[in-house]
Specification:
Structural class: alpha+beta
Number of helices: 4
CATH topology: C8orf32 fold
Number of strands: 5
Strand content: 15-25%
Shape: globular
CATH class: Alpha Beta
Helix content: 25-40%
Strand order of the largest sheet: 4-3-2-1-5
Radius of gyration: 14 Å
Distance between the termini: 30 Å
CATH architecture: Roll
Largest sheet: 5 strands, antiparallel
Length: about 140
């Protein structure tokens, strides 16, 4: 169940990051992906054209509105704040087919695709937009 208050979401997100800090790579990514898929979904909250004004992770959790882009951004923020070398590079991308995915280790792991699994594949993806970890202020 998704935490109802901002304080509860912060505490739950902190617990997620703490739990994932020392898990094996794929297990950590799977837990992060599952956690963000519990978020209440609403279409068209964030848009790629407005990436310069996307919320920081705390504002994202405060707003509590999650389209596929927002969920992917939350996944990317979580991975970035873990600061683990085995979870880099990580990028949020919009594919030519319209999927908003988080790619870790150059498509070795694909998140924001399925709710209960991390795709472990070297798919050839045609990327239309890309938001990289170093772009996070």
């Amino acid at each position: 169940m998704w935490p109802k208050t901002f304080g509860d979401r912060l505490a739950s997100w902190n617990l997620l990051r703490t739990q994932c800090q020392h898990l094996p790579t794929q297990s950590a990514l799977t837990e992060i992906n599952r956690w963000w898929f519990r978020a209440p979904w609403r279409p068209y909250y964030l848009h790629w054209d407005d990436s310069a004004t996307w919320p920081d992770p705390w504002q994202l959790l405060s707003d509590d509105v999650y389209c596929e882009v927002a969920r992917g951004l939350g996944i990317l923020y979580t991975i970035t704040l873990l600061d683990r070398a085995d979870l880099t590079p990580a990028d949020l991308v919009l594919t030519e087919s319209g999927h908003n995915l988080v790619l870790v280790d150059q498509t070795k792991y694909i998140l924001n695709w399925e709710s209960d699994a991390v795709v472990n594949n070297n798919l050839e993806l045609k990327i239309r937009w890309q938001y990289q970890q170093h772009q996070i202020a």
